[in-house]
């Protein structure tokens, strides 16, 4: 296990595992997927370190993405107040790591997730955000029904925030996804 991997409580299913049951990347060569995964890990580490005021040298492979984050942060109306944290639901035995919680000038708390994807994946992002919103809410965070996925760009241009909303139909899809995952992986 590398230094970047964390130990998940035994018996808990990660949100990313639940959503991975739909293979959307099967036609992409493995080495490309592994490279993108490494970039995602590095950018999340850099943003988290930046958010808590820690020094972390930025790897050259993510320079543009990190600049994209910094440009988005300058332009956004949010203040990041809660760095990356893993949440658990003991009832459903699921877990997910939330990238950040931000507060608006009106005092609303929002879930923020960062993506280095070349294109928007609205359906998956909405499901992932719904799971994360649920996890944060049952862990006593009073979040807005809105959440944002910030798409970061390799060229350093300002990240683009994509807004999503919690709804009963999306929550039902998440429940069905969890049931399906457990059925197929039991």
What does this structure look like?
- With 186 residues, the chain is α/β, with parallel strands linked by helices.
- The chain contains five helices and eight strands.
- Strand 6 (109-115), helix 4 and strand 7 (143-151) form a beta-alpha-beta unit.
In short:
The protein is of the alpha/beta class and 186 residues long.
String of helices and strands? EHHHEEEEEHEEH
> Helix amount, in percent?
25-40%
CATH architecture assignment? Alpha-Beta Complex
**Low-confidence spans: pLDDT under 50, at least 5 residues?**
none
- In CATH's first tier, which class applies? Alpha Beta
SS strand fraction: 15-25%
Identify the quaternary structure here: single chain
Overall form: globular
The order of strands across the largest sheet is 2-5-6-7-8
Mean pLDDT, all residues: 91
Radius of gyration: 16 Å
SSE-based structural type: alpha/beta
Query: How is the biggest beta sheet arranged?
Result: 5 strands, mixed
Stated plainly, the CATH topology is called Lambda Exonuclease, Chain A
């Amino acid at each position: 296990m590398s230094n970047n991997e964390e130990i998940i409580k035994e018996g808990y299913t990660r949100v990313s595992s639940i959503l991975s049951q739909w293979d959307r990347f099967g036609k992409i060569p493995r080495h490309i997927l592994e490279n993108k995964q490494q970039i995602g890990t590095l950018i999340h580490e850099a943003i988290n370190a930046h958010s808590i005021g820690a020094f972390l040298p930025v790897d050259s492979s993510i320079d543009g993405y990190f600049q994209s984050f910094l440009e988005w942060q300058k332009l956004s109306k949010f203040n990041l107040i809660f760095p990356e944290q893993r949440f658990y639901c003991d009832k459903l035995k699921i877990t997910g790591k939330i990238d950040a919680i931000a507060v608006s000038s009106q005092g609303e708390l929002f879930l923020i997730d960062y993506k280095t994807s070349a294109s928007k994946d609205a359906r998956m992002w909405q499901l992932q955000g719904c799971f994360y919103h649920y996890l944060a809410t049952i862990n006593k965070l009073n979040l807005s029904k809105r959440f944002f996925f910030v798409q970061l760009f390799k060229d350093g241009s300002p990240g683009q925030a994509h807004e999503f909303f919690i709804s009963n139909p999306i929550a039902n899809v998440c429940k069905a996804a969890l049931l399906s995952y457990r059925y197929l992986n039991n």
